[in-house]
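User: Please predict the structure of the protein below. I'd like the answer in structure-token form so I can feed it into my own downstream comparison script.

Assistant: Understood. Taking the following sequence of 459 residues as input:
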Amino acid sequence: MLRTDPAIEPGNLLPKINRLFERSAEKIISLQETWDPQKGAPVFTAKGVYTSRGWTEWTQGFQFGSALLQFDATGDNQFLDIGRQGTLAHMATHVSHTGVHDHGFNNISTFGNLHRLMREGKTPYNEWEKNFYELALKVSGAVQAARWTDLGGDQGYIYSFNGPHSLFADTVRSLRSLAVAHQLGHVLMGERDQRINLLQRLLQHAETTARYNVYYGEGRDAYDVRGRVAHESIFNLNDGSYRCPSTQQGYSPFSTWTRGLGWILCGYAEELEFLDALPESELESFGGKQKICTAFRDVAEAVADFYIANSPSDGIPYWDTGAPGLVKLGNYLDRPADPFNQFEPVDSSAAVIAAQGLLRLGSYLRSHRAEERGGAYFQAGLTIASHVFDEPYLSNSPHHQGLILHSIYHRPNGWDYVPPGSATPFGESSMWGDYHARELALMIQRAAAKEPYYCFYLQ
């Protein structure tokens, strides 16, 4: 399990963070100079070069959002220009995309970051520019919320690209699009001008995900371990009944795909912060802030504890807790992860996503009189960051376009590049892994400098 360093502080990581953003600048410029937009969005690297993979276009926001995070961290205006121009030229179709559940990934990373930077005074205030960003964010939240499966009894969910029967764990972090659109005063207009509350849909989706995609050790099935996560839940649309767990990118429905767990951990921790910023009056009709936040906290703590217990000592997990080759690694949880082993790949992208979730959960708990427990999660997040921001994960080669190495995309489909002579993929990067590493680094950098807390929602 993860061995937390209790002494590490945000300021201790600044040398690693500074080096990360130095490498990051090179990677962003390299991709900007070589990428052909006709190929679609860059997804992951093969032999160090970013390639596309047609499935859904869920990573383009990370491409331009990374440039905006780079500007935020360094103040270098060339990255603001890349982020702005890329958003204007390529992101409009993502705002109105009715076929994906990824609006929070694509549009909060671009329009959302641009809006945030202006609110924070890091870019000049312009009324029309602000209105442009806000219109995009409003539409994105409504389009995301329209992908709705109603289960009856105030239950429902934003369905995945697999279809109305499918609920993905990933989508919890895309709830950011509904949150921001709600804060901007927007609603989804339905048949006969029905006004559909976006906050209500956010809460219903989160409650349904918590009920079916997360386990609590209560004997739901033979593999019900507290904090375990199922990537996908399947429903019978004839009567709205739950049928079974499933997975698209994990090993099995009865093991935990670690990036899916990372999305749950980061998503619920982030939504806890968002809900905490809302006035009580906005949540009264949904059961009240205390009841809702207690439920979200239960989810976040369960998956955080599972992640810590089921990760190697450095907190960088293998791609699935039930991957069959893990048995050949011996006591792999008692030592750092080995990305070069010949049995199962690690997934650094799961680590950077989960680390942010641990920091956010820790910060939330510390601000709500749970100092000891919150401090433990916060230190766990810093510990993971300390490892993943260093070799062998930080990419120092100018010939490699990725920033964080040893990220895995789709192990079951065999999409990840396997070097000659190896039995497993390693040494490659992903758009989401690189983006979330930058986001994690920016969050810690701000904490060290006592700057405003980094968050997606309107403060």
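That's the full token string. The chain has a mean pLDDT of 97.
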